[in-house]
Specification:
Helix content is 57%, strand content 5%. The protein is mostly helical. Strand 1 (6-7) and strand 2 (10-11) form a beta hairpin. The two termini are 26 Å apart.
Length: 82
């Protein structure tokens, strides 16, 4: 089981920093409130997987095989940074 404070070498401050970077990227690319922004859940999950530096195997596990394959189709090679 994964502890609440550590995910394969990623500590809590790193997770918080990663989420903050994602928020900043989404904020920079929207016209208004993030609450009112209509966006792709799949792309948001891909951003989270990328921010957490998940490798391809971990991405398949976290995102599910179908979403992972869609992302590979639309975004390219299944690198750890989709």
């Amino acid at each position: 089981m994964i502890s609440q404070t550590q995910i394969k070498g990623i500590d809590r401050p790193q997770v918080i920093s990663s989420l903050a970077r994602i928020r900043e990227e989404w904020t920079d690319n929207t016209d208004g409130s993030l609450i009112e922004t209509h966006a792709s859940v799949g792309l948001l999950l891909a951003d989270i997987a990328r921010a957490l530096n998940l490798n391809a195997e971990e991405q398949v596990h976290a995102l599910g095989a179908d979403l992972f394959e869609e992302l590979v189709y639309y975004l390219g090679a299944p690198e750890k940074t989709l």
